[in-house]
Inverse folding.
């Protein structure tokens, strides 16, 4: 049977400067059958996005393909197609849903106009016909109150709604192939579940094929028919989803599957890529919940945060971001905080560190209410409560070297006698987080995402804190890098007796890290308990909903999606 798309001997390179060439993809071949889902999986830099973007010819101008490369669609080689013909295919026969909708949607046009534009260009509909069809598409992808949202701008929609708009644009002309490039990476687990179910329904209804790009094997296992595993620009393994998950042959595939935290197991350390690739025995000893001390290190009582939003000239609307949150932090333990975007979990972390002032409540740290302290008085405590932010690319000063990033907070808080001693402390910290000494003189842009997050952790440790708030600190990382960072956090906790507040929407990661868990919804704590209790016997309907949305990976299916 002739495949819908056949990628043959694809090699893609980038010209950087006059003499420097980077080979991103080498001799990659795979087929996408009709009415089927093929997943490209691998870590960042594996070449999966470059392979997919080669199909639609959306690589930057400095990219080029080898003469042997072919991408056959409808009997024609897309790499040799005149650009005018290629533009006619894009959006009509082959569409793309990108990872970050806010960087893909035009901020100055309404979402209705952006959906209608595709219909006017490819189907030659009149402006009125295009807007009417845009409304139908917004309803089809499940955007609530679609008629009123038709004239909304992208920033007025939530992340999940923005991604639904992107899907509406992509399916507007009923394409034969939909390329989904990490379409759910930044979304909450429940929204992710909704988007994946939406894609499955649309695929079945429109009989289209999907090329799904992801590093989340749990998600891939649920939706794909075929899996192609890539590393360093090459295919390491390819086969049916059943074969890849139940009997992986390549060590790298086995490593990817082993790195992900599981819901039914809490080993003392997570496996990392090198463990599997070098044949090291996996640690099977299970982690136990850390004991709770007699007294709490921090007592939070009735914490509340309100925002007053201006509506019109005279009216104000009060939004309660956090409502009467109360909990304790115990030395050496990890408190997990889970919930969807807008649940208030990040606001709680920001109030703990006084980066956001609470409207009401108290934060007692060794008997001292942090809410009553002035900025100068708070400086003493600020070094004892630190935060690791979600995005390591945005949280490090790009104009500072790593050494300056580590030394500056020590200088401000008078840690160390002089800069020579601070330099030695910084080098020791780099060693603690697994970075070489020569990182001291480099800039953040010279490091990968995982390495930058290690630098952010080292910066926190430079203050010698007792409490660290981890705000989605591993959500932007590949599963293998994520496992390495989680192991590092556990090692540091054991060595320094650190107390963590671990905020995340990734319930598998929270299950692995936390001793106690708070579940938040719409600013309220709706459930709390030990990690084992919450996951084994969730009481609240919202907790049950969160847990049911977690991707479980491949499970036996009664019938295949192929037809």
């Amino acid at each position: 049977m002739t495949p819908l798309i056949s990628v043959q001997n694809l090699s893609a390179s980038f010209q950087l400067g006059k003499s420097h060439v980077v080979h991103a993809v080498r001799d990659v071949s795979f087929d996408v059958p009709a009415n089927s889902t093929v997943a490209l999986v691998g870590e960042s830099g594996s070449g999966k996005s470059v392979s997919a973007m080669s199909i639609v010819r959306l690589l930057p101008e400095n990219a080029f393909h080898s003469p042997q490369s072919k991408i056959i669609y409808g009997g024609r080689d897309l790499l040799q197609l005149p650009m005018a013909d290629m533009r006619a295919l894009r959006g009509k026969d082959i569409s793309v849903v990108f990872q970050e909708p806010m960087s893909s949607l035009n901020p100055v046009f309404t979402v209705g106009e952006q959906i209608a534009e595709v219909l006017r260009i490819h189907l030659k509909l009149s402006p009125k016909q295009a807007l009417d069809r845009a409304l139908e598409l917004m309803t089809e992808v499940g955007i609530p109150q679609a008629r009123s949202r038709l004239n909304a701008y992208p920033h007025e929609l939530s992340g999940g709604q923005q991604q639904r708009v992107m899907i509406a644009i992509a399916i507007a002309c009923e394409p034969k192939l939909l390329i989904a490039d990490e379409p759910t990476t930044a979304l909450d687990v429940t929204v992710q579940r909704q988007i994946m179910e939406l894609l499955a329904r649309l695929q079945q209804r429109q009989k289209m094929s999907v090329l799904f790009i992801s590093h989340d094997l749990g998600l891939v296992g649920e939706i794909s028919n075929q899996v192609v595993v890539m590393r360093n620009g090459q295919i390491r393994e390819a086969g049916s989803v059943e074969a890849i998950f139940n009997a992986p042959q390549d060590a790298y595939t086995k490593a990817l599957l082993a790195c992900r935290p599981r819901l039914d197991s809490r080993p003392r350390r997570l496996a990392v890529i090198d463990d599997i690739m070098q044949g090291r025995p996996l640690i099977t000893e299970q982690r136990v919940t850390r004991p709770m001390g007699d007294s709490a290190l921090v007592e939070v009582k009735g914490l509340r945060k309100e925002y007053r939003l201006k509506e019109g000239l005279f009216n104000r609307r009060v939004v309660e971001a956090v409502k009467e949150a109360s909990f304790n932090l115990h030395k050496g333990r990890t408190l997990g905080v889970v919930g969807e975007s807008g649940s208030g979990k990040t606001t709680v972390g920001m109030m703990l560190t006084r980066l956001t002032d609470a409207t009401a409540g108290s934060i007692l740290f060794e008997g001292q209410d942090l809410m009553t302290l002035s900025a100068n008085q708070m400086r003493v405590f600020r070094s004892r409560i630190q935060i690791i932010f979600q995005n390591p690319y945005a949280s490090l000063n790009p104009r500072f070297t790593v050494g300056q990033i580590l030394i500056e907070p020590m200088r401000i808080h008078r840690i160390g006698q002089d800069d020579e001693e601070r330099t030695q402390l910084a080098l020791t910290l780099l060693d603690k987080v697994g970075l070489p000494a020569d990182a001291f003189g480099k800039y953040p842009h010279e490091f990968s995402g995982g390495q930058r997050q290690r630098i952010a952790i080292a910066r926190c440790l430079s203050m010698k804190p007792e409490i660290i708030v981890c705000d989605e600190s591993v959500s932007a990382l590949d599963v293998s890098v994520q496992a390495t960072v989680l192991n590092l956090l556990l090692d540091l906790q054991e060595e320094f007796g650190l107390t963590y507040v671990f905020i995340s929407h990734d319930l598998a990661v929270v299950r692995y890290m936390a001793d106690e868990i708070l579940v938040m919804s719409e600013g309220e704590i709706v459930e709390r308990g030990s990690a084992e209790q919450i996951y084994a016997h969730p009481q609240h309907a919202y907790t049950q909903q969160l847990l049911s949305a977690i991707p479980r990976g491949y499970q036996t299916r009664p019938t295949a999606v192929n037809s």
